[in-house]
Protein 1
Amino acid sequence: MHNPSPDNSQSTRYPVSVKGVLIHENNVLLLKNERDEWELPGGKLELYETPEDCVVREIEEETGLRIVAGQIMRPYVFYISNVTPVLILPFHCHCKNFDAIRISHEHKEIGTFDVHRLDQLKLPPGYRNTILAALELEDTTPQP
């Protein structure tokens, strides 16, 4: 589906969402949103905040995990409910393990899922593609 881009008068209201891909032992951390879709942790980039600082802050707020922002991955545009465009800036992130995860009030559920079974989840294609790209990075990136 081709969605129109916002015109210049809307560009100041074009949101940027910074997301983190956290994979531990071939399981990825996902959160269920109000649309009953699974998504990567992260959120809106604040004014004067770096994308790296944003992903670290958002993941700690949403999951309780302290992470390290790694390599930025391929950005893309996601349309919320096929209407509202959001620029997604995903990062390949690192944490020691998922033992300390907790859910915040922002989501309905939290879970870890086998990266080889993503097709069984209600997960937007952009997130699925980003997770699979991060899985390839897992094999080549030294963990902190």
Note: Strands lie at 16-24, 27-32, 38-39, 42-44, 68-72, 76-80, 84-94, 109-114.
Protein 2
Amino acid sequence: MKVYFHTRRQADLPADTDWLTPGETNVLRGLKFPKRRQDWLLGRWTAKSALQRLSRVQRSLSDWQIAAAEDGAPIISFCGNSSEFHLSLSHSNGHSLCVLVLDTPRVGCDLERIEERSRTFEETFFTASELKLLEQHPSNRRAGLVTLIWSAKESVLKALRKGLKADTRRISIHSVTPEQPGHWSAFEAMDKHGGDSFHGWWRIREDMVLTVASDCHMDQPTAL
């Protein structure tokens, strides 16, 4: 399965909002907090930029609409019609990530800044096998691995259309391939509630971990 990804920064966001649809403009007006507004705008702009690049349709960005389904997952329409693309969005610390696929709606992505997290965090959100995995790696790389496991869980939960409303310990991350600087590495995951296996990719760009997960086997994500 082909997977495409696109990243943008807050600093690249246009000053105007002419690229929004009327429906999106109404949603924006309902967002009261500045950070929430900026994150929402960055996610929509990243997704529309990715869609325009992948579809090669030379039309206005306002012809694409990114709405939210009842469960909160993003859905795409083009000029009022349902799109053949499926996507997942994530944003963190002024960066955004969009992943697009054609073959399956069960795809999720996440973007997280690498930072130190407490032992309490690990014991609250990680499974026993993930804690064991942490102990098998050098302590100076612990922050990166903790961030990777957390991000991979979020990607799988998005693919399940659950998000962080679900217990993160229902997802177990394993078989993590070592980092290949500048490239994607693989990981495997299991949904202990449904029994489904998920396949994923991860990489580090600057100080951010990017992850993508699906219940289908995926090629390494391709940049747009």
Note: The chain is about 30% helix and 30% strand.
Protein 3
Amino acid sequence: MDRKFDLLEHASNADLRAHQLDRLKSSVAYAYEKVAHYRRAFDEAGLKPSDLVSFDDLARFPFTTKDHLRANYPFGMFAVPESDIVRLHASSGTTGQATVVGYTKADIKIWSNLVARSIRAAGGVPGDKVHVAYGYGLFTGGLGLHYGVEAMGCTVIPASGGFTERQVKLIADFGSNIIAVTPSYLLAIADEFDRQGISAREAGLRIAICGAEPWTDAMREEIETRMGLQAFDIYGLSEVIGPGVGQECADSRGALTLWEDHFYPEIIDPETGQVLPEGEEGELVFTSLTKEAMPIVRYRTRDLTRLLPPAGSRPMRRMDRIKGRSDDMLIIRGVNIFPTQIEAVLAQEPRLAPHYVLEVTRPGNLDELAVYVEWRPEAGASDAADNAPMARRVQGLIKGNTGVSAMVKIVDPGTLERSQGKAVRVIDKRGKA
């Protein structure tokens, strides 16, 4: 691994903040000089890069949103000539125009080293075999982890997503030590281990690096119990760089350490845009500090979390695990609710599986929420007979914990479609009638 990218991982807090401010000033100036969007946005706000003297001054600068990236599709946010771009990634564009991100050779090296740092922080060591079950292609997950595994000095097994039966065979036959995967797909892999009659706990995996979607402590406990490993959260998003922006570390579990030597975080009120004090929950915002191809200034992630003090051996601040996304929040009859709140309720019933879907409709003038959840595979005839009473119990738990009334339908194991990447938890049919 290139050690020059790790010099600040264990620096003193004072050294980290000094380097961070220098990099912040340079990155903002670089964005203004090289990217027409930032030059125009700063000028309209009456600001110059020289107005950034302290960390507090950053709050005066305008935000960057996904709409800005879409408006500059495909390459309008790039700060370098196209000839300097060595890789392109893009979002799926399922909710609008795709967002495109580019990388120079130096960006790829930094990204790879940050993913390697994340793997090491989770307990990985050179020589480990890492089974990468994130999707490859324009999504940053697969290739982001792939190059980080190589930079770490590990063996990469580029399984990608899908072909779940083969995933189990590869893990068992190759003796993988680490798996990188979305938590929902890891549960599908655990189900496939059970279907094949193979003990997942004896397969040799000791670490799971899970990301790309919010997940609850209950889901983590189920993964660790069934797979016989430790599951760690990794955080990232394509617009900022990809996976490797933050990592849950083995010596400070429960929150994710943000790699603040490369990304400066803020928490804002999602309604007002006001910067919130450390420890308050709000929307996460990032400014890149070292990116060449596509510097990003105050990018609104829509992810809801809070900043926490450093812990363990690193001076970087941590962030709480993602509660949800502000654009994933459902408003049901005036009540705000996140899918993870429903997931936490379902986890209170041990006979229910962690596979669920929320369906929102508006048959008349009022919203209606339906929750579909599976019995566990070991459910028997007595459970089937208990379907209606169990549904009523879950309805009461949902109402008591969220204030929302829901229709609950408990279905047979394997009924709900399994995701091979990010789980689709919400089907919103409002406005389609």
Note: The two ends are 55 Å apart (CA to CA).
Protein 4
Amino acid sequence: MSSLPFVVMAKPVGSRCNLRCRYCYYLDKGKFSSHQKQSRMSFDLLEKLIRQTIQASSGPIVSFTWHGGEPTLAGLDFYQKAIELEKKYLPKNWQVWNNLQTNGILLNDHWVHFLKENRFDVGLSLDGNQWVHDANRLDLRQSGSYQRVLAAAKRLKAAGIEPDLLCTVNAATIKQPLEVYQALRELDTGWIQFIPIVIRLKNGQMAPESIDASQYGTFLCTVFDEWVHHDLGRLDVQLFAETARVLAHGKASLCWMSETCGRVLIVEEDGAVYSCDHFVDENHRIGNLFQNSLADLANSAAQLAFGNQKKQALSAECRACPYLAYCHGGCLKDRFAQSSTKEKNHYYLCGGLKQFFGHALPILKQIMQLSQAGKTPQAIMECLNTQKR
């Protein structure tokens, strides 16, 4: 049994996908697969994955995240087998939590019925409105995918599944922050995640789809103001909720906001296990399920060292920052200097987060005080809107 909890992000088809999003960071990861041609994870490997994850868990809830590439390419029968194996190995009175993160293209009525029947949570990638979404999220024919994803969102909602909406913050998104947020809000699913796109090319330049710190900060503050004045109690935005959690003396559940990381293991379709979704490469392959146990790999010296880098390699500016408790230096993948005045391992989006925390924290503190005084979300918004005027 693992001494510390960990999560498994399974990639049943590796990096295979039915879209060609311009900012995708995972599409080329198949080159690290031991399979000559990437295929679906075998049922034998699937059984090892499920059995070892359950055995390593302290329970009573065991989590599986099915990711990609595009995980629905594994086929509905793959997940039917997964449910069968989960029931086989799950101890009495334990529960399993399955999360499918998908682009939604293949989600027909059969898929949705299965997901509902087996209580899957669904993360659906949707970049706001049609113009922004179709600027980057293209299919194999280079056509936009917005209408098909929107149909999937509505199909899920009709079945009683409220998907988490996963929206990237990219060079198109930052041009329409309010329009993007409002389009997502209209779907009324209750939860939105904003994922910044930071892609550094081999020549050290940033990819055209990337954003900079200033753009990120402006985007977050604009969306926060709309949310706080109109949508308290109606929906949550992940970063806002995590910031409030830390403000209330809790710990962030997001790895990039935590003091250390390395507790989210990636299991590829060939059984290879990697340190992190953003570090699927030969230097961060820590083992293989055909030779190693997940618990041993999660607590291996290599994986613990990887996770501790987040704290140990903080820049001097981070260590002195009043907002350190909220981001702990950001994600390791984005720690690089873009200025001669910054340290080599400085977080690329630091300035944007500082802008957001400086703007949002005083308001979040006030919200907490009003909430503790018994005010409803509607009353809190009325109070904030009065102050705004």
Note: The chain has a mean pLDDT of 94.
